[in-house]
Amino acid sequence: MSLIPALETLYSAVVADVLDKMGYRNQILSSKIHALTPVERVSGRVFTAQGAAISEIPAEPYKLEMEAIDTMQAGDVFVVDTGHNQESAFWGELLSTACMAKGVRGIVMSACSRDLWALNQMNFPVFGTGAMPADSLGRLDVVSIGEPITIDGVTTKNGDYILGDIDGVVIIPSEIAEEAIRLANEKVAGENTVRAELAKGVPVAEVFRRHGIL
Asked: Running DSSP on this structure, what letter comes out for residue 135?
């Protein structure tokens, strides 16, 4: 059963709260990684890649990057660690076009993008650290795909779930994803009740005493 439909109705803060209560308190990427495009929501299954700085053009440029895109399936989100490399753009318009054709749901990376003039007109979420016109060729290359990676102290692997929005990005380990998403949806229902009571002027302390939600 796919968890994506239930995940895509949530938001990062409520998922982060639930993970905290479940004892998973280190699942949020740093605020340096944010939406670079007008499409500010991304959700789906994690597919990983590790990038590294290089100083010369490889014999087979973009080899593993292309392999990753060709391997990913509908519902995946490309999650890439480059160690916050800012020297070039890892991503751009053409790769986004290829991913959209496969049903890949977005990219989240500790890296820069380019072609924002085009990406801003596409329905493809790109989360990263900023913009840079320089190509990654000879500057940054993928050294592994499908292996566990660590971004901002958060370790993730293929098959985990990811949710990003205007507040930030949270990773949900696959082992607890079903329970975490169920609890997050329950919390959303509780927050709706709390919001309605606060809107009626019920004192905050009383609302918190009743529901334990703020």
From this structure: B
Instruction: Give residue 212's region: left, alpha or beta (phi > 0; psi -120 to 50).
Output: left
Which is it for strands 42-53 and 76-81: parallel, antiparallel or unpaired? parallel
The string of pLDDT tens digits covering residues 87-109 is 999 999 999 999 999 999 999 99
Q: From CA 186, how far away is CA 195, in angstroms rounded?
A: 14
DSSP string for 32-50: TSEE-SS---EEEEEEEEE
Q: Which residues contact 109 (CB under 8 A, 6 or more apart)?
A: 33, 78, 79, 80, 81, 82, 90, 91, 127, 128, 129
- Rounded to whole angstroms, how far apart are CA atoms 96 and 27? 26
Strands (E), the chain: 34-35, 42-53, 76-81, 89-91, 107-109, 112-113, 126-128, 130-131, 140-145, 149-151, 154-156, 161-165, 168-172
| Structural domains of the chain ordered from first start | 4-173 (3.50.30.40), 181-211 (no CATH)
Could you tell me how many residues make up the chain? 214
State the first-to-last Cα distance of the chain, in angstroms, to the nearest integer: 32
Model pTM above 0.85: yes
Count CA atoms closer than 13 A to 202's CA, side-chain side: 15
Which residue matches tokens 């916050």?
Answer: 84
